[in-house]
């Protein structure tokens, strides 16, 4: 049996990729952050989801924020597939920091709740 420490972050990455791909498709953009609703709806929802997923992971909760944020990269590659990868990785790394902090807080609250 595969340990939950591997399965749960993997599930988050897969779910995040599907959700971000769907968001970009519905919004008609190549990258999720190009959508008008990204900063007002999608990114705040990402932070909330990171906190909840961090509580679900409990151990290494910060991974939830990293996985959910970085899941935008495969969605972008699927729709564009061009040379914007270095820029995208740098932007996603910066966007992942608040999500990782939120996820860590969610995990901490789950442990000490």
Mean model confidence by pLDDT: 90
What fraction of residues sit in β-strands? Answer: under 5%
Number of helices: 5
Q: What is the radius of gyration?
A: 14 Å
Total count of strands:
0
Shape: globular
Q: How is the biggest beta sheet arranged?
A: none
Could you spell the SSE succession in H and E letters? HHHHH
**First CA to last CA: what distance?**
29 Å
Based on secondary structure, the structural category is mainly alpha
Which stretches are poorly predicted, pLDDT < 50 over at least 5 residues? Answer: none
Overall helicity? over 70%
Structural description of this entry:
- This protein is mainly α and 113 residues long.
- The chain has 5 helices and no strands.
- The chain has helices spanning 4-27, 38-57, 62-70, 72-79, 85-112.
- It is globular and about 40 Å long.
- The model has no long low-confidence stretch (mean pLDDT 90).
């Amino acid at each position: 049996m595969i340990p939950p420490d591997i399965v749960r972050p993997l599930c988050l990455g897969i779910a995040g990729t599907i959700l971000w791909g769907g968001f970009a498709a519905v919004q008609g953009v190549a990258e999720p952050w190009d959508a008008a609703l990204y900063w007002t709806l999608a990114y705040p929802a990402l932070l909330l989801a990171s906190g909840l997923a961090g509580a679900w992971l409990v151990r290494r909760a910060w991974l939830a924020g990293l996985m959910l944020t970085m899941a935008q990269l495969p969605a972008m590659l699927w729709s564009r597939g061009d040379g914007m990868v270095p820029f995208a990785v740098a932007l996603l790394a910066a966007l992942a920091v608040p999500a990782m902090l939120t996820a860590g807080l969610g995990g901490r609250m789950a442990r000490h709740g």
